[in-house]
Amino acid sequence: MSGDQERHELEPDVLAERAELVDAEHDLGEQELSVGARRAAEALTGVAPEPGVAKPDAILVADGVVRQFGGLTAVDVEHLEVQRGTITALIGPNGAGKSTFFNLVSGFDSPTRGKWSFNGTDITQLAAHKIARRGMVRTFQLTKALMRLTTLENVMLGATGQGGESLWRAPLRFLWRAQERDNVTRAEELLERFNLTHMRDEFAGTMSGGQRKLLEMARALMVQPDLVMLDEPMAGVNPALTQSLLGHIQALRDEGVTIVLVEHDMDVIMSISDWVICFAEGRVIAEGRPDDIRRDRAVIDAYLGARRSLKEDPQ
Amino acid sequence: MDLLSILSNSFRGALGPEAAIYALAAVGLNMHFGYTGLLNFGQVGFMLVGAYGTAVPVVAWGLPLWVGILIGIACAIVLALLLGVPTLRLRGDYLAIATIAAAEVLRYIYRSEWAEPLTGGVFGITQFANDFYDLNPYSSRLDLGWLSFSPTALWVMTVGWGATFLACGLVALLIHSPWGRVLRSVREDEQAARSLGKNIFSYKMQSLIIGGVLGALAGSLMAINTQALTPDVFMPILTFYLWTIMILGGASRIMGPVVGAIVFWFLLTFLDSFLRQIIGDGLIGLESSDVGAIRFAAVGLGLMLLMMFRPAGLLGNQKELRLDVR
Question: Nearest CA of chain A to the CA of B206: how many Å?
Fold first, then answer.
């Protein structure tokens, strides 16, 4: 009985993934730059590929951000700018400080010193939830699906400015019913977009790892962010789903959302990023377009791999 | 052996004032643990401040009882703030340690010689709830033949179960709102909730206060029910009865604590009566002074069996429990 059910649930899933794979291969064949990619490339023309370079329209600017754990300096970023409307990738060896930098700017950790601004306003030391409300949303390296909430509830949680989230209004349903209905509509659109409609009323805990990645992205989008920070979105995801995730990320950029992602898969980085920033030992050692980075001496030494790199990497 | 009198006692236990009081306190605990994931091991502390907050103003300052109940609620809010402000930003286990310690510290303070002018110390205080009994609308016993309740018990039961069901209704309204959604997301993963713009500290604080106030109301009723209040009623074990009740009924189920309290008290009084009768008949070689210990051992055994065969409790969603949380 239950076996039958599972098989029925699986089928549309498999078919959807298959269709996406075909689409993705189709897209690759075309080699045509998307609207967003062209826009990003235009905006970044003339920006020199050197660490700390200024961008024409920076959405996120970090200045002198330092984070020390005891004697260890995990992050020491002199100056860093992220161009609006681009996919910016952070790369670097394990322990280079990428995730720590993520945690700092998203308010999940506090720096030893330094400041940073988002959309032109200083958000240093602002609480994480306030940063998220301003339109900078992050995901986590280990996906955090809210297991015992349904998929729809997971996504609904992302909506900002919900009247019914205040204790006094919560028992008075008529005060927030209309808003809730709008949010359900929007959440259902997102589920549709990420092929999760069939999971709508299932507990998120029953999802596969890949579905959880999609769910996390849908949830982040429910916040209607200007900037999405993705911490290793492709980790532990099968190739077909990687293609689908890439498609979603590019589509977001084409809609004008800025994406910052940490990723280790170099094929992924080189195929979708408009700009790449390389970290090593807490510092930004190189910046540039994917083609610049591929040829950068420092990056090859620290990350991509010259012969010595394995020995020097403490991991 | 008189089976009818055993059953009669058991039902009196299951529906009586104590069951209602425990259910109300467990509804508060369910708010903490079942919906927010807060490990409160000191619910009895909230009951204590509620009980003394109710009784002391009446006896010491001659205030009316309803003012006392409000003071009891205020005390619970203060206690929740004192416990929550330093610990709710930390990991969950810190709250657990703080609550269990605070409840014991409070008991010692209330029974100390220093507090005796107000609390009566170890001797406690009595006769403060006459206002409550003056309002009693029942004038005769409820007699169903095999089961009967005195007018005073009926009055406490009416108020106790009434308050419990009102509390359940309020919790249901809250939990099925966007507010409740945030609360449950905090239970599942605080960091995820933060990353989506939710002020998790504020939600945990609100939950701690609401559950604490429900505990204080249960404490008030407990004091009113006996009209005699001593600090040693509020031993740590009481908190663990509440946990048993909540888990028995099913945590994070609206009616879980109610079902749990009824079943808990039914079993407790059933075993009590049953053991006393067979000891009285000379069927087993035990002293009647052993009964108290044996019945709790039996409740423990029952709880173990429940965890093995129905781990989500009587009302719990077994499918939900099987999800690999974290």
Answer: 8
Give the contacts of A87 (CB within 8 A, at least 6 positions apart): A40, A249, A250, A253, A259, A261, A272, A273, A274, A275
Interface predicted TM-score (ipTM) of this complex, two decimals: 0.87
Cβ neighbours around A306 below 10 Å, total: 12
Closest to A203 in 3D by CA, of B254, B173, B312, B325: B325
Domain that holds residue B172: 3-322
CATH number for position B159: 1.10.3470
Q: Which of B195 and B92 is assigned the larger pLDDT? A: B195
pLDDT at position A9, please? 54
DSSP code, position B122: G
| Ordered alpha helix ranges (H), chain B | 3-15, 17-29, 36, 43-61, 65-87, 92-111, 116-119, 130-134, 151-175, 178-188, 190-195, 200-226, 236-249, 256-280, 291-309, 318-322
């604590």: which residue's tokens?
B257
Size of interface A-B (CB pairs under 8 A): 111
> How many domains in chain B?
1
Residues of chain A with Cβ-Cβ distance to B324 below 8 Å are 147, 205
- pLDDT tens for B157-203 read 999 999 999 999 999 999 999 999 999 999 999 999 999 999 999 99
Using the predicted structure, report yes or no on whether residue B325 has a pLDDT greater than 60: no
The three-state secondary structure class of A282 is coil
The CA distance from B42 to the nearest CA of chain A, in Å, is 24
Using a 10 angstrom Cβ sphere, with 0-12 exposed, 13-18 middle and 19 or more buried, the burial of residue B30 is: buried
Contact assignment for A128 to B194 by CB distance below 8 Å: yes
Per-position DSSP letters for B173-197, written without gaps between them: HHHTSHHHHHHHHHHH-HHHHHHTT
d(CA A136, CA A188): 22
Topology of domain A35-134+259-315, CATH:
Rossmann fold (3.40.50)
User: B324, A160: Cβ pair inside 8 Å?
Assistant: no
Q: Using CA atoms, how far apart are residues A225 and B269, in angstroms rounded to an integer?
A: 58
Question: Looking at chain B, which residue has its C-alpha nearest residue A179?
Answer: B178
- B149 vs A14, higher pLDDT: B149
Q: Of B192, B319, B320, which is closest to A146 when you measure between CB atoms?
A: B192
